[in-house]
Amino acid sequence: MTRKLLTGIAATAVIAVVAAWAAAPIFAGQALIRAAKAGDADKLEQLVDFPALRTSMKDELGRELARRIRNDPRVADSGLGGLGYVLAPMVLSGAVDTLVTPEVIAQMVTTAEAPDPTDDETRESEPNAADRRDDKDIHQSWGYRDLNRFAVTLTDRDQPDQHLALIMERRGLFSWKLAAIDLQAE
């Protein structure tokens, strides 16, 4: 009898730990979205790995800018495409370093759009609470990419072909932080 009771308690404990481990990124993602909607910069700073996020944004936005340069016939015809490829990483690096703030992350989460670091208006003005109102109908989808990476994919229902995936990465057994973004355009 005692052995069955101990086995049952141990099995219940293991199931509870596994369930908490599997649900931890969902709770972290929900906390990130709540903090973004509330404009809670302190909470966002706790939930974001800023150096990793900056690196990810530089990579993603660099690829997007390169794609735009490649597909713009004005640039291809003028011969400036090569110069654009050379200068784009430098321009993006400085812009992303100043652009990735809790306020901009809140704007990304509430609008499902990554900021455009080449847009002077985006760099010069910090978004305020009025800009972050939850006026948009944002669809959220959740899913593991692997055991240590979890994606919260945001899609504005008005632009269903563009997605912004917030990639949460495991930090310890139950802790998760926003560490990357994935811009997906179909």
From TrEMBL:
<feature type="compositionally biased region" description="Basic and acidic residues">
    <location>
        <begin position="124"/>
        <end position="137"/>
    </location>
</feature>
<dbReference type="InterPro" id="IPR021330">
    <property type="entry name" value="DUF2939"/>
</dbReference>
<dbReference type="Pfam" id="PF11159">
    <property type="entry name" value="DUF2939"/>
</dbReference>
<protein>
    <submittedName>
        <fullName>DUF2939 domain-containing protein</fullName>
    </submittedName>
</protein>
<feature type="region of interest" description="Disordered">
    <location>
        <begin position="110"/>
        <end position="137"/>
    </location>
</feature>
